[in-house]
Amino acid sequence: MRGAARAARGRAGQLWPRPPVPGPGPPPPLLLLLLLLAVLLGGVGAQYSSDLCSWKGSGLTHEAHSKDVEQVYLRCSAGSVEWMYPMGALIINLRTNTFSPTRHLTVCIKPFRDSSGANIYLEKTGELRLLVRDGGSELGQVQCFGLEQGGLFVEATPQQDISRRTTGFQYELMNGHRGLDLRALSAPCRPCSDTEVLLAVCTSDFVVRGSIQNITHVPEQQESVIHLRVSRLHRQKTKVFQPAPEGDSHWQGHVTTLLECGVRPGPGDFLFTGHVHFGEAQLGCAPRFSDFQRMYRDAEERGLNPCEIGME
């Protein structure tokens, strides 16, 4: 495996054919341009589907050279990789122009629950550290690492039958060092300070006023699911909360938090804030709405509000 990773580094510059030996005279500029386009289009072909965020490909294109290593380049803060009939290996190059510098980026991946056919490693200078074992218990679980720790190396495992096997995962890039567990992004098991609440209102993916309908504890995932009835939707970047079916101008949805926080249902309205990772809303600061009103108006009087929010 280490040899494959090192060999991949050496072959990375050999993706394109060598230029032809010059003949008696240089070809006309237009002909040269057409030849170059033919080489590029022929090399890329329709074997893989890729944009700046996600990649989808098939190992069957390398059946004759099952040890081939394919370079995949992605330039988004979030996306996915889906490798059907895995053979050989992939090097996943994750970069984004959204954050700078890249050495302070944290990468989190969430393997598909039905992912199979390959192991996923963290690779740096030919050294491999296993992140997700083919068929292992890590499937469906989020893992995070600093980009300076290495890149993703996906290697197909030996299979007698590769049919119906697909290796895949979602990824997210975040600025700053967040540790090696996405759970660290959740709200701490304590009330947020006034400053933390006011900043959360400005920076969260969702900000809603509502009440707790029910709480479901999921011990095997070490999380609690909080089902909400939302009376005021201040902001949401994704459709976490949907209109209630009874059509009474309310919304409904759920957020998750750590099981160890021991969250319990309580009466009254709260202001719920948080972020969305891999399609799941994670709870941030959640003060009682009356407490938020107090701290917001106090900051407003002193001109210390980092942003404005409707209080009606």
TrEMBL record:
Keywords: Disulfide bond, Hormone, Secreted, Signal
GO biological process assignments: energy homeostasis; positive regulation of brown fat cell differentiation
Segments for region (Disordered): 1-21
Keyword match Secreted: yes
Entry GO terms, CC: extracellular space
Biased composition range(s): Low complexity: 1-13
InterPro entries assigned: Meteorin-like (IPR051998)
Localisation per UniProt entry: Secreted
GO terms assigned for molecular function: hormone activity
Signal peptide annotation: 1-46
Taxonomic superkingdom: Eukaryota
Main location as per UniProt: secreted
Family: Belongs to the meteorin family.
PANTHER family registered for this protein in UniProt: METEORIN-LIKE PROTEIN
Protein name, entry field: Meteorin-like protein
Organism per entry: Castor canadensis (American beaver)
The gene coding this protein: METRNL
